Amino acid sequence: SLGKVNLIVGKNNTGKSTILEALAIYATNRGPDILFELLEERREYSRSEKNRMTGEKNNIEEYNVQALSSLFTDRVISFDADDSVYIGNIKNKKLNYEKSEKKPVSFRFILYVKEMGKDDDGNVFHRIRKHQQLALEINTVSSSENYNIGLEINIGNHPILVDLDNDRPNRFMNVGRFVKDDYQLIRTNNIDRETNGTLFDNIALTDKEQYVINALKIIEPTSERIAFIGENRRERYAVIKLANNPRILPLRSMGDGMNRILTIILAMVNADNGFLLIDEFENGLHYTTQEQLWKVIFSLAKQLNIQVFATTHSEDCIRGFEAVLNSSGQGDGKLIRLHNDNGMIKEVEFNAEELKIATNRNIEIR
């Protein structure tokens, strides 16, 4: 029962950012690379640190396992199928949940043995044999066989096995992180300059470029053009041309708000028919600009068919969201409040009318 634009609130450590990560995994359906991208963004995984350990099998396997364990509840390393992470539609006839066209995604640790043999014609073959007692802990596995630890990822009913005893996970990783047609994830900090430049290149000289300029006018009404300049892709930075000013100015000189809006709108116009995920929407934005930015987001979500999920701790952000949600012709949105009930994360939903009542009566819902 989600809306086109969804705002998620709740106290610290109730899982707001985790929901955005789960949505990113679910939206992409592209296997292990997204997991390692998310771990890098969290600073839970470093390619340079891992590469330093290449050749030391036990160390590199342990490093990969420990990094991936942070995706599981309480960082538990378990081989029990019941401890899998599952992301997908809930099959519950009583609640009458609709089935999603998206394939469910699940992943878990497994134990397996690499085997080599010959067929009847003498041809050499390799195969993987999974350990059947999946609940066994590492130190209880029989030493008579050399078990490897792997990560099994299922997309629908298609399993992928990721070796964790070498640098193989890097083969799945993309150089341009989060430059995807199906989703964009914006962390609490802005997307790095290289990615912003690539996102701008995707829409330069198209109608979408004007969407970006119009959004920047929320803070600087004289904004006319932007571009990315620099000697190479990694060193490019955004510059802006203002009306009645002959100088080209670095966008960073105009404050955090301009740069935050640039990041959000560049990501959004690159997410047609997909998902925009924003962690801590209010970062760098003065309260007076937030309602105006919500207007742009609601409008573009409708025009470009984008489902938006954002998190916030800000009352001003909630009030701006509510004002736009209840304004004429905006419509489809929802606020979702998470709370920790003795270790179980639960949610309470507010539709447009309920949210209006809560804000008008100054009811605390954060």
What multimeric state do the chains show? single chain
Gross morphology: globular
Report the total helices: 10
N-to-C SSE string, H for helix and E for strand? EHHHHEEEEEEHHEEEHEHEHEEH
C-alpha Rg, in Å?
Answer: 24 Å
Largest sheet: 6 strands, mixed
- How much of the polypeptide forms β-strand, as a percent range? 15-25%
Number of strands: 14
Q: Work out the helicity level.
A: 25-40%
Give the rounded overall mean pLDDT.
82
Residue stretches low in confidence (pLDDT < 50, at least 5 long) are 133-144, 170-180
For the largest beta sheet, what order do the strands appear in spatially? 7-11-12-1-13-14
Report the span from N to C terminus.
20 Å
Structural class: alpha/beta
Could you characterize the architecture of this molecule?
This protein is an alpha/beta fold and 366 residues long. It is built from 10 helices and 14 strands. The protein starts with a strand and ends in a 6-residue tail after the last helix. The strands form 3 sheets. It has a 6-stranded mixed beta sheet with strand order 7-11-12-1-13-14, with helices on both faces. Strands 2, 3, 4, 5 and 6 form a 5-stranded antiparallel beta sheet that branches. 31% of the residues lie in helices and 24% in strands.
